[in-house]
Design brief:
The protein is an alpha/beta fold and 247 residues long. It contains 7 helices and 14 strands. It is globular and about 50 Å long.
């Protein structure tokens, strides 16, 4: 396989609008397979797609809300008890990731954060504007506007000669121009159609900025019921659970 294959395993918001699974984007390249975000329903999405969880090298997290990172305890427990993982798993995300993952595991499965495993779980805290190698991909986080008890990021990821950006959840902020400038694929939140609200992005605002960003391809995701009701009125691609994109 040349280039990248991007499979949107989960395209929904926190509330399952439209019956969609929560955010989980899988990226496949010749040498690697990784996730961008791992919402609470992600293990279901992974197995529904027929993907071996052991084949996932890394998970990159935009921000620490449950519909974006809440699937990690289930992925880790599956690796330990069901899939019998032996290869290392890297999880990279914002400052505060280590503490929040441990807290989530202890709330869901007391004692699970400190058990002995047959695989190494590496938790990596990214810093705004600093590119870091995560497995076979490079990721640069850009801080956006979405309070979650820790910094929230848009992630610009380069791998196998292609570059993608996922906005994460955010209201419009100028950092998105830099994060997504000229990328091969910009996966962008479009929570509402034209209603501007704090901490989330609406389609009309995003559409008005695309001329500055100039991505080669745009896919809208994380849509509320309002946005889903207007999806036939937009001139950008929109996500569906299971949508496959090749770059």
């Amino acid at each position: 396989m040349a280039g990248l294959a991007v499979r949107i395993l989960g395209s929904g918001d926190a509330f399952g609008s439209g019956g969609r699974l929560q955010t989980c984007i899988m990226v496949e390249a010749p040498a690697t397979r990784f996730l961008i975000d791992c919402g609470a329903s992600s293990l279901i999405a992974i197995k529904r797609a027929g993907v071996d969880p052991n084949s996932i090298d890394a998970v990159m997290i935009t921000h620490l809300h449950g519909d974006h990172f809440g699937g990690l305890p289930f992925l880790v427990l599956d690796a330990q008890l069901v899939s019998r993982r032996t290869r290392p798993l890297i999880v990279a995300g914002p400052p505060g990731l280590v503490e929040r993952v441990i807290q989530a595991m202890e709330v869901f499965f007391p004692g699970s954060s400190s058990v002995s495993r047959k695989f190494a779980l590496e938790l990596v805290e990214l810093q705004p504007g600093q590119r870091r190698e995560v497995g076979f991909a490079g990721v640069t986080p850009y801080e956006v506007v979405h309070p979650c008890g820790a910094p929230a990021f848009a992630l610009r990821v380069d791998c196998a000669g292609k570059t993608i950006c996922y906005s994460g959840d955010t209201e419009w902020t100028e950092s998105l121009v830099t994060a997504a400038a000229g990328v091969d694929l910009f996966i962008a939140e479009a929570y509402f159609f034209e209603k501007a609200v704090k901490y989330h992005l609406d389609y009309k605002t995003l559409r008005g900025q695309l001329g500055r960003i100039r991505p080669k391809r745009v896919i809208l995701t994380h849509m509320s019921r309002d946005m889903l009701d207007h999806v036939d009125e937009v001139d950008c691609e929109h996500a569906e659970d299971g949508k496959l994109v090749t770059l």
